[in-house]
Amino acid sequence: MSSTDQFETRLDDDLALLTETLEEVLRSSGDPADQKYIELKQKAEQALEDVKNRVSQASDSYYYRAKQAAYRADDYVHEKPWQGIGIGAAAGLFVGLLLARR
Q: Is 36 in contact with 28 (CB distance < 8 Å)?
């Protein structure tokens, strides 16, 4: 299982936990003096904060990796311009063939 698959699975689990917790909050009495309501509300707030932090960290990680890939591609094209042109032409031909089939 790749790290992306593991992240998606963990994120799905986190979102499911968050959903269940928020549903519990909504089903509770809603009485601000009710101790169970206060505990569930705190649990939901903490779960939401945890998920937001994980999503933010993952977003930063993906941004950094995409930026590094772009830099590597730029370096490659500068080192081997004709191969870069060939790859671009092949990709364009492939996309054109796919679009023409529609």
A: yes
Cβ atoms 34, 28 nearer than 8 A: yes
Cα atoms found within 13 Å of the Cα of residue 94, Cβ hemisphere only: 6
* pLDDT single digits (tens) 18-36: 777 777 776 665 666 777 7
The tokens describing 36, both together, are 């169970």
CB 10 within 8 A of CB 57: no
Q: Compute the average pLDDT of residues 3-28.
A: 72
CA distances from 92 to 29, 33, 40, 71, 81 (A): 60, 65, 54, 21, 16
pTM score of the predicted model = 0.46
